[in-house]
Amino acid sequence: MRLRAGPRPIATRFSGPHPRRIRLEDVPGEARDALRLGIEALAEAGATAWVTYGTLLGLVREGRLLPHDNDVDIAVMPVADDAPIRSAMAARGLTLLVDQADSVGTSKLKFVHGPVVLDLFFVREEGEMWADYCTLMKLSVLRSTHPPVAIETRVLDGLTLPVPRDAEAYLAHLYGPAWKQPVTRWNWYLSPPNAEIIVHWAELPRLGEKVWRWKRGRRP
Q1: What order of strands is seen across the sheet that includes strand 116-122?
Q2: CA–CA distance, 19 with 112 (Å, rounded to integer)
Q3: pLDDT at 4 over 90
Q4: Distance CA 20, CA 16 (A)
Q5: Residue 6 pLDDT
Q6: What dotted CATH number matches 2-215?
Q7: Where are the domains positioned within the chain?
Q8: DSSP per residue, 84-120
Q9: What angle, 0 to 180 degrees and rounded to 10, lies between the N-to-C axes of helices 53-61 and 167-175?
Q10: Is 208 exposed, middle or buried (CB count within 10 Å of its CB: 0-12, 13-18, 19+)?
Q11: In 41-87, which ranges are E strands?
Q12: Quick one: residue 53, left, alpha or beta (phi over 0 = left, psi -120 to 50 = alpha)?
């Protein structure tokens, strides 16, 4: 995690009621259905997408979705109009939960299917790296980088999914060279080596408290 100042405003245009947080190990069938339906919807909408973050980590490292994870993650290349994505998701019973955007366009869409949350991260090309952006706290932003990827289709855990061709190198970028080793202590915005917090000055004290609590083994 890196830290720098200078807000990149992201507006949350819609945020519905969040479901109770669950572990995917408690709803394995529903989690796999949400992933399958999300990939189907994105393909129908003509979007370039691939499985990312904890979802890819679990499928590659363990051959399954991570039991302790609580959402499903898909990366999407930007589109001129994301209405076809929203329509295809809705047609499959995925309900829009959060809609975030900045001056460049849509940055993140969050859907829910039954008890399972599905996150779409819109990944933008930025020079030699790609990046996605999402809100952190209320005014700050989390920027997460991705290496440019070529996509291939693989069967993982019985699902036909688009994934980075060099999935191991991609995961090493997201999680570090020790990505194959399970960890017991993890925070989604403080732990990843590919993450950068663009912190708003008004939230520096709050972020400082979160970092202090994290370093002492407390929930931030």
Answers
A1: 11-15, 95-101, 106-113, 116-122, 72-76, 49-51
A2: 8
A3: no
A4: 13
A5: 77
A6: 3.30.460
A7: 2-215
A8: HHHHHHHHTTPEEEEEEE-SSSEEEEEEEETTEEEEE
A9: 130
A10: exposed
A11: 49-51, 72-76
A12: left
Burial state string for 152-171 with b = 16 or more CB within 10 A and e = fewer than 16: eeeebeeeebbbbeebeebb
d(CA 146, CA 129): 6
CA gap 68, 202 in Å, rounded: 33
Give the separation between CA 135 and CA 100, rounded to whole angstroms: 8
Q: For 111-125, how does the pLDDT look when each residue is reduced to its tens digit (9 = 90+)?
A: 999 999 999 999 999
Query: Which strands make up the sheet holding 2-5, listed edge to edge?
Result: 2-5, 195-199, 140-146, 129-136, 124-126
125 close to 48: Cβ distance less than 8 angstroms: no
Q: Is the pTM here over 0.85, yes or no? A: yes
Residue indicated by tokens 């796999």: 32
Please tell me the predicted confidence (pLDDT) of residue 95: 96
Least confident of 10-19, 35-44, 99-108, 196-205: 10-19
Nearest by Cα to 83 from 106, 104, 103, 100: 106
Mean of the pLDDT values across residues 85-106?
96
| 3-state class percentages of the chain: helix first, strand second, coil last, to nearest 5 | 30, 35, 40
